[in-house]
Design brief:
By secondary structure, the protein is α+β, with helices and mostly antiparallel strands. The chain folds into 3 domains: about 1-150, Creatinase/prolidase N-terminal domain (Creatine Amidinohydrolase, Chain A, domain 1, 3-Layer(aba) Sandwich); about 165-300, 3-Layer(aba) Sandwich (Creatine Amidinohydrolase, Chain A, domain 1), CATH 3.40.350.10; about 300-590, Creatinase/methionine aminopeptidase superfamily (Creatine Amidinohydrolase, Alpha-Beta Complex), CATH 3.90.230. It is built from 17 helices and 28 strands. Helix 5 crosses helix 10, helix 12 (about 305-335) crosses helix 13 (about 340-355) and helix 14 packs antiparallel against helix 15 (about 450-460). The longest helix is centred in the middle third of the chain and has 30 residues, at about 305-335. It starts with a helix and ends with a helix.
Protein backbone atom coordinates (compact mmCIF):
# COMPACT_ATOMS: atom_id res chain seq x y z
CA UNK A 1 0.00 0.00 0.00
CA UNK A 2 1.29 3.44 -0.94
CA UNK A 3 1.04 4.88 2.58
CA UNK A 4 2.84 1.94 4.17
CA UNK A 5 5.58 2.38 1.58
CA UNK A 6 5.91 6.07 2.41
CA UNK A 7 6.29 5.30 6.10
CA UNK A 8 9.01 2.79 5.28
CA UNK A 9 10.81 5.42 3.19
CA UNK A 10 10.66 7.72 6.21
CA UNK A 11 12.09 4.97 8.42
CA UNK A 12 14.95 4.49 5.97
CA UNK A 13 15.74 8.19 6.34
CA UNK A 14 15.58 7.80 10.12
CA UNK A 15 18.10 4.96 10.08
CA UNK A 16 20.47 6.90 7.83
CA UNK A 17 20.38 9.96 10.06
CA UNK A 18 20.22 8.30 13.47
CA UNK A 19 16.76 9.52 14.42
CA UNK A 20 14.68 7.58 16.94
CA UNK A 21 11.43 9.47 16.35
CA UNK A 22 9.90 11.62 13.65
CA UNK A 23 6.88 13.81 14.42
CA UNK A 24 4.67 14.96 11.54
CA UNK A 25 1.95 17.46 12.34
CA UNK A 26 -1.21 18.38 10.52
CA UNK A 27 -0.47 22.11 10.50
CA UNK A 28 1.69 24.62 8.63
CA UNK A 29 4.22 27.36 9.56
CA UNK A 30 1.31 29.53 10.75
CA UNK A 31 -0.50 27.06 13.00
CA UNK A 32 -3.43 26.96 10.58
CA UNK A 33 -6.35 24.64 11.19
CA UNK A 34 -6.74 24.23 7.43
CA UNK A 35 -3.32 24.08 5.72
CA UNK A 36 -2.66 24.50 2.01
CA UNK A 37 -1.95 21.35 -0.03
CA UNK A 38 1.79 21.81 0.49
CA UNK A 39 1.47 21.24 4.21
CA UNK A 40 -1.02 18.37 4.27
CA UNK A 41 1.83 16.14 5.42
CA UNK A 42 -0.25 13.80 7.60
CA UNK A 43 -2.62 13.15 4.71
CA UNK A 44 0.25 12.46 2.29
CA UNK A 45 2.00 10.14 4.72
CA UNK A 46 -0.96 8.16 6.10
CA UNK A 47 -4.06 8.83 3.99
CA UNK A 48 -5.92 10.36 6.95
CA UNK A 49 -7.84 13.43 5.76
CA UNK A 50 -9.22 14.74 9.06
CA UNK A 51 -8.63 18.36 10.02
CA UNK A 52 -6.88 17.48 13.30
CA UNK A 53 -4.21 14.82 13.55
CA UNK A 54 -0.50 14.37 14.31
CA UNK A 55 1.70 11.38 13.50
CA UNK A 56 4.59 9.85 15.43
CA UNK A 57 6.85 7.38 13.64
CA UNK A 58 9.50 5.26 15.35
CA UNK A 59 11.46 2.37 13.90
CA UNK A 60 8.82 -0.10 15.12
CA UNK A 61 5.63 1.94 15.48
CA UNK A 62 3.55 4.51 13.61
CA UNK A 63 0.64 6.23 15.33
CA UNK A 64 -1.96 8.88 14.56
CA UNK A 65 -3.26 11.07 17.39
CA UNK A 66 -6.70 12.56 16.78
CA UNK A 67 -9.88 13.38 18.70
CA UNK A 68 -13.40 12.00 18.99
CA UNK A 69 -14.63 13.74 15.83
CA UNK A 70 -12.47 11.49 13.65
CA UNK A 71 -12.34 8.08 15.35
CA UNK A 72 -14.61 6.30 12.87
CA UNK A 73 -13.00 8.04 9.90
CA UNK A 74 -9.48 7.26 11.13
CA UNK A 75 -10.19 3.56 11.57
CA UNK A 76 -11.45 3.39 7.99
CA UNK A 77 -8.67 5.45 6.40
CA UNK A 78 -5.76 3.90 8.33
CA UNK A 79 -6.67 0.33 7.44
CA UNK A 80 -3.71 -1.37 5.80
CA UNK A 81 -1.27 1.48 6.43
CA UNK A 82 0.28 0.04 9.58
CA UNK A 83 -0.62 3.24 11.43
CA UNK A 84 -2.32 2.78 14.80
CA UNK A 85 -5.03 5.15 16.06
CA UNK A 86 -4.31 6.88 19.38
CA UNK A 87 -7.49 8.40 20.78
CA UNK A 88 -7.56 11.87 22.32
CA UNK A 89 -10.28 13.64 24.35
CA UNK A 90 -11.13 10.38 26.09
CA UNK A 91 -10.41 9.51 29.75
CA UNK A 92 -7.64 7.05 28.92
CA UNK A 93 -5.83 9.36 26.48
CA UNK A 94 -2.02 9.37 26.36
CA UNK A 95 -0.80 12.56 24.63
CA UNK A 96 2.20 12.45 22.33
CA UNK A 97 4.78 13.85 24.81
CA UNK A 98 3.76 11.31 27.47
CA UNK A 99 3.69 8.45 24.94
CA UNK A 100 7.22 9.26 23.77
CA UNK A 101 8.40 9.52 27.37
CA UNK A 102 6.94 6.08 28.16
CA UNK A 103 8.24 4.58 24.92
CA UNK A 104 11.83 5.64 25.57
CA UNK A 105 11.87 5.33 29.35
CA UNK A 106 15.32 4.22 30.44
CA UNK A 107 17.10 5.43 27.30
CA UNK A 108 20.05 7.75 27.82
CA UNK A 109 19.65 9.68 24.57
CA UNK A 110 16.73 10.16 22.17
CA UNK A 111 16.90 11.96 18.83
CA UNK A 112 13.56 13.39 17.71
CA UNK A 113 13.30 14.92 14.24
CA UNK A 114 10.52 17.30 13.28
CA UNK A 115 9.73 19.96 10.75
CA UNK A 116 10.35 22.95 12.96
CA UNK A 117 8.30 25.18 10.68
CA UNK A 118 5.18 23.12 11.32
CA UNK A 119 5.55 22.31 15.02
CA UNK A 120 4.57 24.83 17.67
CA UNK A 121 7.34 25.99 19.98
CA UNK A 122 5.30 25.10 23.06
CA UNK A 123 4.63 21.57 21.82
CA UNK A 124 8.33 21.04 21.08
CA UNK A 125 9.30 22.20 24.57
CA UNK A 126 6.73 19.89 26.11
CA UNK A 127 8.23 16.89 24.32
CA UNK A 128 11.76 17.81 25.33
CA UNK A 129 10.98 18.56 28.96
CA UNK A 130 9.10 15.27 29.37
CA UNK A 131 12.08 13.20 28.26
CA UNK A 132 14.58 15.32 30.16
CA UNK A 133 12.53 14.92 33.33
CA UNK A 134 12.72 11.16 32.85
CA UNK A 135 16.52 11.29 32.73
CA UNK A 136 17.00 11.01 28.97
CA UNK A 137 18.92 13.57 26.93
CA UNK A 138 16.39 14.69 24.35
CA UNK A 139 17.86 16.07 21.13
CA UNK A 140 15.29 17.91 19.01
CA UNK A 141 16.42 18.01 15.40
CA UNK A 142 14.58 20.72 13.48
CA UNK A 143 14.49 19.91 9.76
CA UNK A 144 12.40 22.47 7.86
CA UNK A 145 10.46 20.78 5.05
CA UNK A 146 11.53 17.38 6.37
CA UNK A 147 9.39 15.35 3.96
CA UNK A 148 10.88 17.00 0.85
CA UNK A 149 13.42 14.18 0.64
CA UNK A 150 10.69 11.57 -0.04
CA UNK A 151 7.77 13.71 -1.30
CA UNK A 152 8.89 14.10 -4.92
CA UNK A 153 5.86 15.99 -6.26
CA UNK A 154 5.18 18.11 -3.19
CA UNK A 155 3.15 21.22 -4.07
CA UNK A 156 4.78 24.63 -3.81
CA UNK A 157 3.71 27.58 -1.70
CA UNK A 158 0.50 28.90 -3.26
CA UNK A 159 0.13 32.45 -4.50
CA UNK A 160 -3.30 33.71 -5.45
CA UNK A 161 -4.55 37.23 -6.26
CA UNK A 162 -4.59 39.57 -3.26
CA UNK A 163 -7.32 42.18 -2.86
CA UNK A 164 -8.50 44.75 -0.33
CA UNK A 165 -11.71 44.65 1.73
CA UNK A 166 -13.43 47.44 3.63
CA UNK A 167 -14.78 46.32 7.02
CA UNK A 168 -15.38 49.85 8.28
CA UNK A 169 -11.94 50.31 9.86
CA UNK A 170 -8.81 51.12 7.85
CA UNK A 171 -5.55 49.21 8.02
CA UNK A 172 -3.91 52.39 9.32
CA UNK A 173 -6.32 52.36 12.26
CA UNK A 174 -5.75 48.67 12.90
CA UNK A 175 -1.98 49.05 12.74
CA UNK A 176 -2.41 51.94 15.17
CA UNK A 177 -4.14 49.58 17.60
CA UNK A 178 -1.16 47.22 17.34
CA UNK A 179 1.33 50.01 17.93
CA UNK A 180 -0.56 51.18 21.01
CA UNK A 181 -0.43 47.59 22.25
CA UNK A 182 3.33 47.42 21.56
CA UNK A 183 3.87 50.54 23.65
CA UNK A 184 1.69 49.17 26.42
CA UNK A 185 3.59 45.87 26.49
CA UNK A 186 6.99 47.59 26.36
CA UNK A 187 8.26 45.50 23.43
CA UNK A 188 9.94 46.59 20.21
CA UNK A 189 7.97 44.48 17.72
CA UNK A 190 5.00 42.18 17.37
CA UNK A 191 5.20 39.29 14.90
CA UNK A 192 1.87 38.02 13.56
CA UNK A 193 2.05 34.53 12.12
CA UNK A 194 -1.64 33.56 12.25
CA UNK A 195 -3.02 34.14 8.75
CA UNK A 196 -6.42 35.41 9.85
CA UNK A 197 -4.76 37.90 12.22
CA UNK A 198 -2.73 39.24 9.30
CA UNK A 199 -5.69 39.40 6.92
CA UNK A 200 -7.76 41.24 9.55
CA UNK A 201 -5.01 43.73 10.36
CA UNK A 202 -4.16 44.62 6.75
CA UNK A 203 -7.72 44.33 5.35
CA UNK A 204 -6.53 41.93 2.65
CA UNK A 205 -7.89 38.67 1.34
CA UNK A 206 -6.77 35.98 -1.13
CA UNK A 207 -7.35 32.27 -1.76
CA UNK A 208 -4.03 30.69 -0.79
CA UNK A 209 -5.86 28.06 1.30
CA UNK A 210 -8.99 26.34 0.03
CA UNK A 211 -12.18 27.65 1.69
CA UNK A 212 -10.16 30.29 3.56
CA UNK A 213 -9.70 33.81 2.08
CA UNK A 214 -6.17 34.14 3.42
CA UNK A 215 -2.69 35.15 2.26
CA UNK A 216 0.24 32.96 3.34
CA UNK A 217 2.57 35.49 4.95
CA UNK A 218 4.08 36.92 8.13
CA UNK A 219 3.61 40.47 9.45
CA UNK A 220 6.22 42.23 11.61
CA UNK A 221 5.07 45.51 13.15
CA UNK A 222 7.21 47.95 15.07
CA UNK A 223 6.44 51.31 16.64
CA UNK A 224 7.13 53.02 13.30
CA UNK A 225 7.51 50.16 10.81
CA UNK A 226 5.49 47.37 9.24
CA UNK A 227 7.03 44.61 7.12
CA UNK A 228 4.82 42.09 5.30
CA UNK A 229 6.63 38.92 4.26
CA UNK A 230 4.35 37.94 1.39
CA UNK A 231 6.12 38.05 -1.97
CA UNK A 232 6.63 34.63 -3.53
CA UNK A 233 7.05 35.07 -7.29
CA UNK A 234 6.60 37.83 -9.83
CA UNK A 235 3.14 39.28 -9.44
CA UNK A 236 1.22 39.42 -12.70
CA UNK A 237 -2.29 40.04 -11.37
CA UNK A 238 -3.47 43.63 -11.87
CA UNK A 239 -5.62 43.62 -8.73
CA UNK A 240 -2.73 42.33 -6.64
CA UNK A 241 -0.44 45.05 -8.00
CA UNK A 242 -3.04 47.67 -7.04
CA UNK A 243 -3.39 46.22 -3.53
CA UNK A 244 0.37 46.09 -3.04
CA UNK A 245 0.63 49.72 -4.18
CA UNK A 246 -2.02 50.70 -1.60
CA UNK A 247 -0.08 48.88 1.10
CA UNK A 248 3.16 50.63 0.18
CA UNK A 249 1.36 53.99 0.28
CA UNK A 250 0.24 53.11 3.80
CA UNK A 251 3.86 52.63 4.84
CA UNK A 252 4.03 48.82 4.66
CA UNK A 253 7.27 47.37 3.30
CA UNK A 254 6.76 44.20 1.23
CA UNK A 255 9.38 41.45 1.48
CA UNK A 256 9.74 37.92 0.18
CA UNK A 257 8.08 35.21 2.25
CA UNK A 258 11.27 33.26 2.90
CA UNK A 259 13.06 36.36 4.22
CA UNK A 260 11.25 35.98 7.53
CA UNK A 261 13.99 33.59 8.65
CA UNK A 262 16.72 36.13 7.90
CA UNK A 263 14.75 38.90 9.57
CA UNK A 264 14.20 36.90 12.75
CA UNK A 265 17.83 35.84 13.04
CA UNK A 266 19.04 39.45 12.64
CA UNK A 267 16.32 41.39 14.47
CA UNK A 268 17.50 43.84 17.10
CA UNK A 269 15.04 44.15 19.96
CA UNK A 270 12.30 42.24 21.72
CA UNK A 271 9.61 40.47 19.69
CA UNK A 272 6.13 39.64 21.00
CA UNK A 273 4.54 36.64 19.30
CA UNK A 274 1.81 34.09 19.90
CA UNK A 275 1.91 30.39 19.06
CA UNK A 276 5.07 30.75 16.99
CA UNK A 277 6.54 27.74 15.25
CA UNK A 278 9.61 26.09 16.75
CA UNK A 279 11.97 27.09 13.93
CA UNK A 280 11.27 30.82 14.08
CA UNK A 281 11.16 30.74 17.86
CA UNK A 282 14.66 29.26 17.87
CA UNK A 283 15.92 31.92 15.44
CA UNK A 284 14.64 34.75 17.63
CA UNK A 285 16.00 33.15 20.79
CA UNK A 286 14.64 33.17 24.35
CA UNK A 287 16.32 36.47 25.28
CA UNK A 288 14.37 38.42 22.64
CA UNK A 289 11.11 36.45 22.33
CA UNK A 290 8.15 37.51 24.44
CA UNK A 291 5.46 34.86 24.18
CA UNK A 292 2.04 36.40 24.69
CA UNK A 293 -1.44 36.06 23.26
CA UNK A 294 -2.11 37.98 20.07
CA UNK A 295 -4.37 40.98 20.77
CA UNK A 296 -5.81 40.67 17.28
CA UNK A 297 -7.69 37.52 18.26
CA UNK A 298 -9.83 39.43 20.74
CA UNK A 299 -10.22 42.49 18.51
CA UNK A 300 -11.48 40.66 15.44
CA UNK A 301 -13.87 38.53 17.51
CA UNK A 302 -15.99 41.62 18.28
CA UNK A 303 -17.60 42.70 15.03
CA UNK A 304 -18.19 46.37 14.29
CA UNK A 305 -21.51 47.69 12.89
CA UNK A 306 -20.35 47.39 9.26
CA UNK A 307 -19.31 43.77 9.79
CA UNK A 308 -22.55 42.95 11.63
CA UNK A 309 -24.55 44.46 8.79
CA UNK A 310 -22.59 42.34 6.33
CA UNK A 311 -23.27 39.20 8.38
CA UNK A 312 -27.00 39.92 8.33
CA UNK A 313 -27.02 40.58 4.59
CA UNK A 314 -25.06 37.48 3.59
CA UNK A 315 -27.16 35.27 5.87
CA UNK A 316 -30.29 36.57 4.19
CA UNK A 317 -28.91 35.60 0.78
CA UNK A 318 -27.58 32.30 2.10
CA UNK A 319 -31.00 31.54 3.60
CA UNK A 320 -32.64 32.06 0.20
CA UNK A 321 -30.23 29.54 -1.33
CA UNK A 322 -30.90 27.06 1.48
CA UNK A 323 -34.68 27.30 1.05
CA UNK A 324 -34.35 26.71 -2.68
CA UNK A 325 -32.08 23.75 -1.96
CA UNK A 326 -34.33 22.10 0.62
CA UNK A 327 -37.41 22.61 -1.56
CA UNK A 328 -35.53 20.98 -4.45
CA UNK A 329 -34.53 18.12 -2.16
CA UNK A 330 -38.14 17.54 -1.13
CA UNK A 331 -39.25 17.49 -4.78
CA UNK A 332 -36.54 14.96 -5.67
CA UNK A 333 -37.73 12.61 -2.94
CA UNK A 334 -41.40 13.01 -3.86
CA UNK A 335 -40.69 12.37 -7.53
CA UNK A 336 -38.33 9.42 -6.94
CA UNK A 337 -35.49 11.27 -8.62
CA UNK A 338 -32.17 9.46 -8.15
CA UNK A 339 -29.63 11.76 -6.51
CA UNK A 340 -26.53 10.98 -4.48
CA UNK A 341 -24.95 12.77 -1.53
CA UNK A 342 -22.51 14.32 -4.00
CA UNK A 343 -25.28 15.43 -6.38
CA UNK A 344 -26.95 17.26 -3.49
CA UNK A 345 -23.72 18.99 -2.45
CA UNK A 346 -23.05 20.13 -6.01
CA UNK A 347 -26.57 21.52 -6.40
CA UNK A 348 -26.30 23.52 -3.18
CA UNK A 349 -22.96 24.92 -4.34
CA UNK A 350 -24.53 25.98 -7.63
CA UNK A 351 -27.31 27.84 -5.82
CA UNK A 352 -24.82 29.69 -3.62
CA UNK A 353 -22.71 30.56 -6.67
CA UNK A 354 -25.64 32.65 -7.97
CA UNK A 355 -25.43 34.99 -4.96
CA UNK A 356 -23.66 38.33 -5.62
CA UNK A 357 -20.41 38.53 -3.68
CA UNK A 358 -20.04 34.76 -3.34
CA UNK A 359 -16.36 33.83 -3.08
CA UNK A 360 -16.65 30.06 -2.62
CA UNK A 361 -17.65 27.68 0.14
CA UNK A 362 -16.42 28.30 3.69
CA UNK A 363 -15.53 24.59 4.09
CA UNK A 364 -16.11 21.36 2.23
CA UNK A 365 -19.82 20.60 2.27
CA UNK A 366 -20.78 17.64 4.44
CA UNK A 367 -23.63 15.98 2.56
CA UNK A 368 -24.43 12.83 4.50
CA UNK A 369 -27.31 10.38 4.40
CA UNK A 370 -28.07 7.72 7.03
CA UNK A 371 -24.89 6.04 8.34
CA UNK A 372 -22.68 8.65 6.64
CA UNK A 373 -24.07 11.31 8.99
CA UNK A 374 -22.80 9.34 12.00
CA UNK A 375 -19.35 10.79 11.14
CA UNK A 376 -19.41 14.41 12.32
CA UNK A 377 -16.73 15.38 9.77
CA UNK A 378 -17.76 13.06 6.96
CA UNK A 379 -16.16 13.68 3.56
CA UNK A 380 -18.69 13.20 0.77
CA UNK A 381 -17.11 11.10 -2.01
CA UNK A 382 -17.21 12.51 -5.54
CA UNK A 383 -17.67 9.07 -7.06
CA UNK A 384 -19.65 6.21 -5.62
CA UNK A 385 -21.44 8.45 -3.12
CA UNK A 386 -24.41 6.83 -1.36
CA UNK A 387 -27.77 7.49 -2.95
CA UNK A 388 -30.46 9.39 -1.07
CA UNK A 389 -33.58 7.35 -0.37
CA UNK A 390 -37.09 8.56 0.56
CA UNK A 391 -36.82 7.60 4.22
CA UNK A 392 -34.60 8.42 7.19
CA UNK A 393 -32.45 11.46 7.90
CA UNK A 394 -30.14 13.47 5.66
CA UNK A 395 -27.59 15.87 7.22
CA UNK A 396 -26.09 18.79 5.32
CA UNK A 397 -23.43 21.00 6.96
CA UNK A 398 -22.30 23.77 4.62
CA UNK A 399 -21.42 27.43 4.34
CA UNK A 400 -20.33 30.20 2.04
CA UNK A 401 -17.67 32.89 1.90
CA UNK A 402 -19.04 36.25 0.78
CA UNK A 403 -17.48 39.68 0.42
CA UNK A 404 -19.64 40.80 3.35
CA UNK A 405 -19.41 37.81 5.67
CA UNK A 406 -19.14 34.07 6.27
CA UNK A 407 -21.92 31.52 6.81
CA UNK A 408 -22.10 28.07 8.42
CA UNK A 409 -25.35 26.13 8.68
CA UNK A 410 -26.38 22.55 9.37
CA UNK A 411 -29.83 21.15 8.73
CA UNK A 412 -30.92 17.57 9.30
CA UNK A 413 -33.83 16.77 6.99
CA UNK A 414 -36.27 13.87 6.90
CA UNK A 415 -36.37 12.42 3.38
CA UNK A 416 -39.44 10.37 4.31
CA UNK A 417 -40.65 8.21 7.22
CA UNK A 418 -38.26 8.04 10.19
CA UNK A 419 -37.87 5.56 13.02
CA UNK A 420 -38.89 6.43 16.57
CA UNK A 421 -35.21 6.59 17.57
CA UNK A 422 -34.40 9.00 14.74
CA UNK A 423 -37.28 11.24 15.80
CA UNK A 424 -36.29 11.15 19.47
CA UNK A 425 -32.69 12.09 18.72
CA UNK A 426 -33.79 14.74 16.25
CA UNK A 427 -36.06 16.34 18.86
CA UNK A 428 -33.54 16.18 21.70
CA UNK A 429 -30.85 17.85 19.59
CA UNK A 430 -33.27 20.60 18.58
CA UNK A 431 -34.15 21.13 22.24
CA UNK A 432 -30.43 21.47 22.99
CA UNK A 433 -30.04 23.97 20.18
CA UNK A 434 -32.98 26.04 21.45
CA UNK A 435 -31.67 25.97 25.02
CA UNK A 436 -28.44 27.69 24.02
CA UNK A 437 -30.03 29.98 21.43
CA UNK A 438 -32.52 31.32 23.99
CA UNK A 439 -30.00 31.83 26.80
CA UNK A 440 -29.74 35.10 28.73
CA UNK A 441 -26.52 35.42 30.72
CA UNK A 442 -24.19 37.95 32.40
CA UNK A 443 -21.70 39.93 30.35
CA UNK A 444 -18.34 38.15 30.31
CA UNK A 445 -19.72 34.64 30.80
CA UNK A 446 -17.36 32.15 29.08
CA UNK A 447 -18.70 29.56 26.68
CA UNK A 448 -17.58 26.65 28.86
CA UNK A 449 -20.30 27.72 31.33
CA UNK A 450 -22.95 27.84 28.60
CA UNK A 451 -22.08 24.51 27.01
CA UNK A 452 -24.16 22.46 29.44
CA UNK A 453 -27.29 24.33 28.34
CA UNK A 454 -27.13 22.64 24.95
CA UNK A 455 -26.33 19.25 26.47
CA UNK A 456 -28.87 19.16 29.28
CA UNK A 457 -31.79 17.83 27.15
CA UNK A 458 -29.48 15.13 25.80
CA UNK A 459 -27.95 14.28 29.17
CA UNK A 460 -31.41 13.88 30.70
CA UNK A 461 -31.87 10.98 28.25
CA UNK A 462 -28.25 9.79 28.72
CA UNK A 463 -27.12 10.89 25.27
CA UNK A 464 -24.18 13.11 24.31
CA UNK A 465 -21.84 14.26 21.54
CA UNK A 466 -18.06 14.43 21.42
CA UNK A 467 -17.42 17.74 19.65
CA UNK A 468 -17.76 21.32 20.82
CA UNK A 469 -21.14 23.01 20.78
CA UNK A 470 -20.04 26.28 19.20
CA UNK A 471 -17.15 28.12 17.58
CA UNK A 472 -16.52 31.72 16.63
CA UNK A 473 -16.81 32.75 12.99
CA UNK A 474 -14.80 35.40 11.14
CA UNK A 475 -16.07 38.21 8.93
CA UNK A 476 -15.14 36.95 5.45
CA UNK A 477 -12.38 35.03 7.21
CA UNK A 478 -12.07 31.58 8.78
CA UNK A 479 -15.28 29.73 9.51
CA UNK A 480 -13.63 28.66 12.77
CA UNK A 481 -12.37 31.58 14.84
CA UNK A 482 -11.47 32.23 18.45
CA UNK A 483 -10.89 33.10 21.12
CA UNK A 484 -14.50 32.54 22.21
CA UNK A 485 -16.21 29.17 21.87
CA UNK A 486 -18.87 27.01 23.49
CA UNK A 487 -17.42 23.69 24.58
CA UNK A 488 -16.61 21.68 27.68
CA UNK A 489 -12.90 22.53 27.58
CA UNK A 490 -12.09 25.24 30.13
CA UNK A 491 -11.74 28.52 28.25
CA UNK A 492 -12.05 31.69 30.29
CA UNK A 493 -12.75 34.06 27.37
CA UNK A 494 -16.04 35.76 28.13
CA UNK A 495 -18.74 36.69 25.64
CA UNK A 496 -19.18 40.30 24.54
CA UNK A 497 -21.79 41.96 22.36
CA UNK A 498 -20.67 41.74 18.73
CA UNK A 499 -19.26 38.22 18.90
CA UNK A 500 -20.57 35.58 16.49
CA UNK A 501 -20.75 31.92 17.51
CA UNK A 502 -22.26 28.72 16.16
CA UNK A 503 -24.85 26.64 18.02
CA UNK A 504 -24.54 23.02 16.85
CA UNK A 505 -25.30 20.16 19.24
CA UNK A 506 -25.67 16.68 17.78
CA UNK A 507 -26.19 12.96 18.31
CA UNK A 508 -24.36 10.31 16.27
CA UNK A 509 -25.11 6.59 16.12
CA UNK A 510 -22.44 4.61 14.31
CA UNK A 511 -23.80 2.64 11.38
CA UNK A 512 -27.26 4.21 11.68
CA UNK A 513 -27.58 7.99 11.40
CA UNK A 514 -26.51 11.35 12.76
CA UNK A 515 -28.33 14.53 13.77
CA UNK A 516 -26.99 18.07 14.05
CA UNK A 517 -28.77 21.43 14.07
CA UNK A 518 -26.67 24.57 13.54
CA UNK A 519 -27.33 28.27 13.37
CA UNK A 520 -24.90 31.16 13.70
CA UNK A 521 -25.78 33.49 16.56
CA UNK A 522 -24.87 37.12 17.16
CA UNK A 523 -24.25 38.06 20.79
CA UNK A 524 -26.19 41.23 21.64
CA UNK A 525 -27.01 43.24 24.75
CA UNK A 526 -29.98 42.16 26.84
CA UNK A 527 -29.90 45.31 29.01
CA UNK A 528 -28.62 46.15 32.47
CA UNK A 529 -30.07 46.19 35.97
CA UNK A 530 -28.97 46.11 39.60
CA UNK A 531 -27.37 42.72 38.97
CA UNK A 532 -25.16 43.86 36.10
CA UNK A 533 -25.11 43.83 32.31
CA UNK A 534 -26.74 40.99 30.38
CA UNK A 535 -26.36 39.34 27.00
CA UNK A 536 -28.48 37.17 24.73
CA UNK A 537 -28.21 35.66 21.26
CA UNK A 538 -29.84 36.80 18.03
CA UNK A 539 -30.05 34.23 15.20
CA UNK A 540 -28.21 35.24 12.04
CA UNK A 541 -29.06 32.06 10.12
CA UNK A 542 -32.41 32.16 8.33
CA UNK A 543 -33.64 28.70 7.36
CA UNK A 544 -36.44 26.46 8.66
CA UNK A 545 -35.87 23.41 10.80
CA UNK A 546 -37.70 20.34 9.57
CA UNK A 547 -40.77 19.78 11.75
CA UNK A 548 -41.70 16.48 10.04
CA UNK A 549 -39.50 14.28 12.29
CA UNK A 550 -40.19 16.39 15.37
CA UNK A 551 -41.89 14.80 18.39
CA UNK A 552 -43.77 17.93 19.42
CA UNK A 553 -44.95 16.39 22.71
CA UNK A 554 -41.31 16.31 23.85
CA UNK A 555 -41.01 20.11 23.57
CA UNK A 556 -41.79 22.42 26.47
CA UNK A 557 -44.16 25.35 25.84
CA UNK A 558 -41.18 27.73 25.85
CA UNK A 559 -39.36 25.60 23.27
CA UNK A 560 -42.43 25.53 21.02
CA UNK A 561 -42.71 29.31 21.32
CA UNK A 562 -39.07 29.77 20.38
CA UNK A 563 -39.40 27.50 17.33
CA UNK A 564 -42.60 29.17 16.15
CA UNK A 565 -41.14 32.66 16.64
CA UNK A 566 -37.98 31.67 14.75
CA UNK A 567 -39.99 30.20 11.88
CA UNK A 568 -42.12 33.34 11.69
CA UNK A 569 -38.91 35.40 11.47
CA UNK A 570 -37.54 33.15 8.71
CA UNK A 571 -40.73 33.41 6.67
CA UNK A 572 -41.07 37.18 7.08
CA UNK A 573 -37.42 37.83 6.13
CA UNK A 574 -37.15 35.44 3.17
CA UNK A 575 -40.63 35.57 1.65
CA UNK A 576 -40.11 38.80 -0.38
CA UNK A 577 -37.14 37.29 -2.22
CA UNK A 578 -38.65 33.92 -3.22
CA UNK A 579 -40.67 32.92 -6.24
CA UNK A 580 -44.24 31.74 -5.68
CA UNK A 581 -43.37 28.04 -5.55
CA UNK A 582 -40.51 28.41 -3.05
CA UNK A 583 -42.52 30.88 -0.97
CA UNK A 584 -45.48 28.50 -0.72
CA UNK A 585 -43.17 25.68 0.30
CA UNK A 586 -41.58 27.90 2.95
CA UNK A 587 -44.99 28.93 4.28
CA UNK A 588 -45.93 25.30 4.82
CA UNK A 589 -42.55 24.46 6.33
CA UNK A 590 -42.76 27.30 8.86
CA UNK A 591 -46.31 26.73 10.08
CA UNK A 592 -46.61 26.86 13.87
CA UNK A 593 -46.36 23.60 15.78
Amino acid sequence: MVFADRIEQLRAMMRNRGWDVVIVTGSDPHGSEYPAERWKCVQWLTGFTGEAGDVVVTLDHAGLWTDTRYFIQAVQQLEGTGVELHKMRVPEQVPIPEWIRQKFSGESEVYIALDGLCVGAGFAREIKSGLNADGAACHLVSVPNLLDAIWADRPGIPQTPVFTVDPGESRIERLGRLRDWIAEKGVDYVLLSSLDDIAWTLNVRASDIEYNPLVISFLLVGSETAEWFVLKDDVEDEGTEKTFAELREDGIFLRYYEEIEIAMSEIDGSVAAADLNYHLSSLIGPSRLVETASPVQAWKAVKNPIEIGGFRDCHLQDGIAMVRFLHWLDRCMQNDRAISEWDAAVHLGQLRAEIPGYQGDSFETISAYGPSAALPHYITPKSGAPMLEPHGLYLCDSGGQYLNGTTDITRTWALGPCTRLEMEDYTLVLRGHISLASAVFPLGTPGCRLDALARKPLWSHQRNFGHGTGHGVGWFLGVHEGPQDVRQNLNGVGFEAGMVVSDEPGIYREGLFGVRHENLLLCVSAGSNDFGSWLRFEPLTLCPFDTAPLLVDMLTPAERDWLNDYHALVYDRLRPYLDESDADWLRRRTEAV
